[in-house]
Amino acid sequence: MRGQQGNIILIGMPGAGKSTLGVLLAKALGYDFLDTDVMIQAHEGRLLQQILDAEGPDGFCELEARYLSELAVDRCVVATGGSVVYSADTMRHLKSTGVTVYLQLSLPELLPRLDNLDIRGVVMRAGQTLSDLYRERVPLYERYTDVTIPCGGDDHEAIVAHTVTELTLFAPGAPMEQRLH
Asked: Is the pTM of the predicted complex or chain greater than 0.70?
């Protein structure tokens, strides 16, 4: 793995399964798990949507970048917020700590998972649709990913197994490979 640390950084759209799959992946590998949205909420003492309402999208992204640019964990599956890719500096830092994994889901598969945008804490500009957001973010996820995992159609266990296989192929000799054999 890149750098001294062996983290797995999950990126992707809200609703792609970063938190759910992250917990299962951490369990499969014997890693710790960190959901950065939950971490930010805990440190701020407010829900993501409350932060967005008070700070706006740009203010939220600045806050997110500050927390994640200082993140220092090891052997951890890190589920990031979907907006993390707006900060090149933050992504450089995260990539220096491990492998980035893009959990890829098509827009039609994503739509039914995001029926609660008003309370979920999704960084969107006024008038922006989910389709607009998807078209804006997908190229950023693709730019920053080391490994892309298609998440449509499969069950969670199959996606986790596929992810472990892809990570082992991406980083032969990494700690996760030692755990699998």
From this structure: yes
Spatial separation of the C-alpha atoms in residues 171 and 175, rounded to whole Å: 9
Look up tokens 């986790």; give the residue.
160
Amino acid at position 124, single letter: M
CA–CA distances in Å: residue 137 to residues 30, 46, 149, 160, 163 = 30, 25, 16, 23, 21
- pLDDT of 128: 85
Residues 6+ positions from 178 with CB-CB distance below 8 Å: none
Q: What H or E segment, with its residue span, contains residue 155?
A: none
Tokens of 96: 């220096």
For the chain, which domains are there? 7-168 (3.40.50.300)
Nearest to 14 by CA among 158, 136, 162: 136
State how beta strands 7-11 and 32-35 pair.
unpaired
